[in-house]
Design a protein that fits this description.
The protein is an alpha+beta fold. The chain has a single domain, classed as Cytochrome p450 (Orthogonal Bundle), CATH 1.10.630.10. Helices cover about 50% and strands about 10% of the residues. It contains 17 helices and 14 strands. Strands 1-2-10-7-3 form a 5-stranded mixed β-sheet. A 3-stranded antiparallel β-sheet has the order 4-14-11. Strand 8 and strand 9 form a beta hairpin. The longest helix has about 30 residues. The two termini are about 35 Å apart. Bound molecules: protoporphyrin IX containing FE (HEM). Belongs to the cytochrome P450 family. It comes from Sphingomonas crocodyli. Keywords: Heme, Iron, Metal-binding, Monooxygenase, Oxidoreductase. InterPro entries: Cyt_P450, Cyt_P450_B, Cyt_P450_CS, Cyt_P450_sf.
């Protein structure tokens, strides 16, 4: 258990986009979007990793521990195909990073039948109706209300820390079945264990053991006393076997699932909510439009995930030779799918570099696509919808604080987010 001061310190330490990138050695000081766009305009697919193509050598992105040549997919058509054809553009590539391997068996790195069957055990808990009718009333609504109450009576706020950071980490930790007060300590251990926070090998190992112990204890408890949470669902749902039979997930499989869900669900939603808020407040017409017609909020979130996906690049491993958007790509190479440049491909969107709430609706790649499309996207969207509605109800005239340094999009190649979101609440 940590006190309020320690909690405040941890929030500032764990939810600083620049610091997070600095710690893993991939902080970028320039706006990478024009550079990614220029690459895509030169060719839809290029030999070399995105890191090499952007001349970011020295950045320790992902810490691959298997030597391979790389290719980068830059166009919408190339990334769209790679996301759909997961046997050719294989997610097993993730297993070549120690961080993912340390999580145990996780769907992110599985392919084919194994992936489909394992994901199906959890899928029903993450569908849109469950996001709205289970995650909402059980966790999201209450946590948002508590965060709003902290802002009552105030004139200013820094919403990156006071809202965007606090909401997802608490929702996902409590959704798993852990007590809210454990959220930060658990996330800190998880980031250290998976190498997202740089610590000594001994500390990394100690955190790895601690994460396993905390989740293991919770699984033991829920086996004895079922709750109404994700762990209970993972314990009770059937894994359907190819021969028509069923089995239950092992503790190790459940622990892997929880590690992934907490890691994937905490950081991304924090940063994407910040980007969405910034986009709306930066072009105040869009804040006003959403405030006056709440049915537009969902489009605001989708457009933010298209315009500035918090994670602009994802990996794959090529399992066979293929011609991708006209370019031959050999088997055995590592693939960087640059969703950032694909989402701004002018062959698909007019004025793609502009955040436009009213643009024609078309699917984008910000939540991925195909078999590995984000499992938690409905939960993430529900969190953002409830948070934005609550802000608009409470602080309809909220605006960026002109006296504070203007918010910037910062971070590394793999995770982008806001430097801060200073606002005047009234
Ligand atoms: C705005 C927030 C989010 C964004 C932009 C996002 C984005 C993504 C993307 C692009 C992928 C595909 C990765 C790949 O194909 O290699 C993914 C996968 C995944 N996400 Fe999210 N995510 C978000 C929130 C969440 C949340 C809230 C959760 C859980 C509560 C979550 C859980 C997962 C899981 C488990 C996977 C792996 C799915 C699989 O491999 O089948 N994500 N996410």
């Amino acid at each position: 258990m940590i006190d309020v001061e320690e909690e405040e310190r941890l929030y500032r330490e764990l939810f600083d986009v620049s610091n997070e990138a600095k710690e893993i050695g991939n902080e970028i000081h320039v706006d990478i979007v024009p550079a990614m766009n220029a690459l895509r305009d030169a060719a839809p697919v290029m030999p070399g990793s995105l890191q090499q193509l952007l001349h970011l050598e020295g950045h320790t992105i992902n810490n691959w521990d298997v030597e391979r040549d790389s290719y980068t997919l830059l166009s919408f058509a190339a990334c769209d195909r790679a996301l759909r054809e997961n046997l050719t553009f294989s997610s097993a590539g993730y297993l070549e990073t120690p961080g993912v391997r340390s999580m145990g068996p996780v769907i992110l790195a599985m392919t084919g039948d194994e992936h489909r069957r394992t994901r199906a055990v959890a899928q029903s808990m993450f569908l849109k109706p469950r996001a709205m009718n289970w995650w909402g009333p059980n966790w999201i609504d209450e946590i948002v209300e508590q965060l709003m109450q902290r802002l009552d009576g105030r004139d200013t706020a820094e919403l990156n820390i006071e809202l965007c950071a606090r909401l997802p980490v608490n929702v996902v930790t409590r959704g798993i079945g852990m007590e809210g007060r454990m959220a930060l300590v658990f996330r800190d251990h998880l980031l250290k264990a998976t190498g997202v926070r740089k610590v000594t090998r001994e500390e990394q190992y100690a955190s790895h053991i601690e994460v396993g112990r905390m989740l293991g204890d919770l699984i033991t408890l829920r086996r004895a006393e079922p709750g109404d949470d994700v762990i209970t669902g993972l314990i009770h749902n059937d894994f359907k076997l190819a021969d028509g039979g069923t089995r239950k997930l092992s503790d190790e499989e459940i622990i892997g699932f929880c590690r992934l869900v907490i890691l994937a669900g905490g950081g991304t939603t924090w940063r994407q909510l910040g980007i969405t808020l910034y986009a709306l407040l930066n072009d105040y017409r869009f804040w006003e439009a959403c405030r006056d017609d709440r049915s537009l909020i969902e489009a605001a979130i989708e457009e933010s995930a298209r315009w500035m996906p918090t994670d602009p690049v994802f990996p794959r491993l090529m399992t066979e030779d293929a011609v991708v958007d006209g370019v031959p790509v050999p088997a055995g190479v590592r693939i960087d799918m640059c969703l950032g440049s694909a989402n701004r491909d002018p062959s698909r969107w007019d004025n793609p570099d502009v955040y436009d709430l009213f643009r024609e609706k078309k699917y984008h790649l910000g939540f991925g696509l195909g078999p590995h499309q984000c499992l938690g996207m409905n939960v993430a969207k529900q969190e953002m919808i409830v948070a934005l509605n609550a802000l608009m109800n409470r602080f309809p005239n909220m605006r960026l604080d002109p006296a504070a340094p203007p918010p910037r999009i910062v971070g590394g190649l793999e995770q982008r987010g806001m430097s801060a979101i200073p606002v005047l609440l009234h």
